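User: Here's a chain of 261 residues. Predict its fold as tokens.
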Amino acid sequence: KPTRIVSINLCTDQLLLQLVGHKRIASVTYLAADPYISYSANRAVGLVKNHGLAEEVIELRPDLILAGAFTSRPTTSLLKKLGYRVIEFKMAGSFETLRQNIIKAGEVLDEEKKAGRLVAQFNTALGRVAPNGRLVSAIILQPNAAGAGNVSLLDDIFRSANLTSISLGQGILGIGWLTLDQVIWAQPELIISDVDPSWPSLGHFAMRHPAYRAILDKQGRVPPRVTLPANLWNCGGPQVAKAVSILAKARADALDLRENR
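Assistant: Prediction complete.
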């Protein structure tokens, strides 16, 4: 079993923290401690933090390094050349890749049974969410009016909650950006937004623009809003099932609201 594991990517932090105890973890990234983006922030308390730099990692004398597919290439290349065992994980762009990453992490961390249980728990939680009826159009708002299109984890999340993203009609693949006028023109039936961060942000301030309050659905009514924390979906893991559950309930509430108006 590896006993000095270092993660240099937020999403591999999440896998590591959900599968392994502190005694075997040499370090996770500083991002792992931020509850705004890290679902496992409470588990990162007390661990050494790194910024994904090769010199930091070398000092930690790791026997296993976990990295993301988009982690700094110079860092991972150098560490490999120096003989360190570096395991890279794909970005979870779908539920299937999410499951594959958990299983792969279980194998390299020698925690196959625990990984299998996490996948089983994820599948069970998804199975409990079985919305019926028509699709509801939705938009997820973030700074710069971000939207989710095809080939993204959010796409799978939306479909499982019986939602359809208005971004799909804009030709977006993966995560893209919509302008404010595009959002207003699309007339979503449900608006999804993140929690406000504790730090000042021009992007979040811009989202308080009065025009956002002018968004109406196709019947000329103000659509309901739901808060979806980014730490439930920005990295693939069992927590994604909670995101699906939140959105499925919001969809049902949106339909009930329409019928009772």
